[in-house]
Structures are given as structure tokens and as C-alpha cells.
Write a structure and sequence with these properties.
The chain is mainly alpha-helical and about 150 residues long. It is built from five helices and two strands.
């Protein structure tokens, strides 16, 4: 009769055929956890948490951006409006998320236009539909069209 030693994992000699499979699975699981722990420690030492938790540059608040001219802002409004139209017509599974992100960018650009013209700035984005229409109308009354 052959005795299968299950190794250091269980420390029990067994003749049962399933013990060797359990020991092998446990050994693989412990090895995978050890590799994951080593990768996490190496990532922490290299500063990955700071890179992963820092927001992308495009998400920085509008206060940190360089001052843009009215022409640049109008160009941005045209571009964002075209993107919004294209994304709204798409059948992408991420359509709603993209529309909301583009809407916030559009609202921020509208607020920057108001600031350049000295108009009262709307509330923080995202704007309600009525506030957005009122802001667009105020800009149009001051000669800004896109």
C-alpha cells in the first residue's frame, strides 16, 4: 500500500486519494496570494497608490486651467455640442456616462464664457436644463453664438 504524503500544507499522511488534490489546490492558492502580496508591496514601494488615486489632468477644476479667450471658449462649445449630439445618437453601452461627462464640460465652458463677459455665473455643474437654457440665452443676448 502506498502512502501519499500531502506535504507541509496539511502535515498529515493519508491514503485517501482526495487529500493530495486538496493539498495541491491549497498550495496553489497560497502561492497566488504570496505573488499578489509581493506585487502590492512592490507597487507601494514604487509609488503606484499616488498615481492611481490622483485624478487625471482633464478633471482638474476650472480654477486651475489657464485663462482662455472667448474665441477658444466658443470653439470648445461648438466642439462639445457636436460631441454631445454624436454620443446621444450612438448605441454605446457607456452612452449615459459619456453624455453626463460631456454635459458637465459644456456647463463649465458656459460658466467660463459668463466669467469672461462679466455675466453672473450659473450654479456649479451640472446645470438644470432651465438654468442651461437661461445661460445660453444670456450669452446669445451678449453676441456669443456657436
Amino acid at each position: 500500500m502506498t502512502v501519499a504524503w500531502t506535504g507541509l500544507i496539511t502535515g498529515v499522511a493519508s491514503t485517501h486519494p482526495h487529500w493530495s488534490a486538496v493539498a495541491m489546490f491549497a498550495g496553489l492558492a497560497i502561492s497566488a496570494l504570496a505573488l499578489l502580496l509581493a506585487a502590492c508591496l512592490a507597487g507601494y514601494a514604487l509609488g503606484w497608490p499616488e498615481l492611481l488615486l490622483r485624478p487625471p489632468r482633464r478633471w482638474l477644476s476650472r480654477r486651475r486651467r489657464k485663462e482662455r479667450t472667448l474665441e477658444q471658449l466658443i470653439s470648445d462649445l461648438q466642439h462639445l455640442e457636436a460631441l454631445l449630439t454624436r454620443v446621444e445618437r450612438s448605441r454605446s453601452p457607456l452612452r449615459l456616462r459619456r453624455v453626463s461627462m460631456l454635459t458637465v464640460q459644456y456647463d463649465e465652458t458656459l460658466a467660463e464664457c459668463c466669467a469672461v463677459l462679466g455675466l453672473p455665473s450659473p450654479s456649479d455643474p451640472p446645470l438644470k436644463a432651465l438654468d442651461r437654457i437661461e445661460t445660453e440665452a444670456a450669452l446669445c443676448l451678449h453676441g456669443v453664438t456657436w
